[in-house]
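your task:
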Amino acid sequence: MNYQNTVEWLFAQLPMYQKVGVKALNKSLQPTQKFLSHIGNPHHQFKTVHVAGTNGKGSVSSMIASVLHEQGYKVGLYTSPHLKDFRERIKINGNEIPEQSVIDFVGKYKSYIEENTISFFELTVVMAFDYFAQKKIDIAVIEVGMGGRLDSTNVITPLLSVITNIGFDHTAILGNTLGEIAREKAGIIKQNIPVIIGEKHPETQQIFVQIAQATESPIYFAEDDNQTDLYQTDLKGNYQKKNVQTAQTALRILAQQIDINEESIKKGLAKVVKNTKLLGRWQVLNEKPLVVADTAHNAHGLQQTMKQVSQQKYNKLYVVLGVVDDKDLSAIIDFMPKSAYYFYVRPDIFRGLGADILSEKMQGYGFQGEVCSCVSDGYKKALSNATANDMIYIGGSTFVVAEILE
């Protein structure tokens, strides 16, 4: 099989959360552990940092990886989901896993994959660990896919665990209260392993403290870290300030175990996009009109991005909006600007909510807009309507942004 055939086979053969939702999830680490054991436990061959959280975990993971790269380490980075190409999930020093490595892995273990119940995400995790071991990396930064306790990545024993924040997302799986969600994400806290908590919250703080005490894990709250100066980052979203604070705290604690100097922290944070090729975080696609794409898709994330939208200077705001079919619009509606004109789109995935249904629901909340045939159609209509002094925001779903970046 060539690369395209291989990826199509993966998507067709394996359950994938982005396509089918909860049915794709194995509520056990056992399939991942069994697969890793089958191929020789490659995740035992390198050091790791583990990053969970409702929002910001991809940015924080990329920040830490960029700093370690500047320090001179050979750094693996595992993130999800991908935006344009499957290979974005698995990188070493910013370079994506080669197409041939994907082909070879699937070819070698195709029979095992077909004979065992393995999710798409489980396979990508194992593929990443196998590739990192083959390339003899020094350290890998591993982003949790969802939750933490039962996430496939939670088979590692890291040097450091990081939990960026807690908000409402994937409630059908993780729980309906912040406390329940916090307990799932706190599942990455390991015995005697330091843990960094990015944001404090009355409903979650004591939960983290209790679990850290039970596991005898040193716990640090980034908000308590007396950081007089936060370094600049090339990631433009205002919400990145909290992520920088979390990353800087994590890196300074990590520096107690491996060599990391202050100059590398400063340089690495300034070159996150260059060093890791991170996409879709307040990504400016055009200046006149101002066009911004952002992958924020839950209440916690959209609250931050819409606040930054309100701070921009423009005559009129246009929003290209699409969501998945299990999105609770009532949770995000208060953050969406009613003065904007909306182009409703359906992300091109199985779980994409129909643009006509989204339009009807948004109209019920008092929003104005029109239905578009696809994401690119929505973007073209927004561009044709906007003047040089207007703004276009593209988002609501990671998959909407992915189509725009193609």
User: Anything to note?
Assistant: Residues 17-22 have pLDDT under 50 and may be disordered. The radius of gyration is 21 Å. The chain has two domains: 3-276, 283-405.
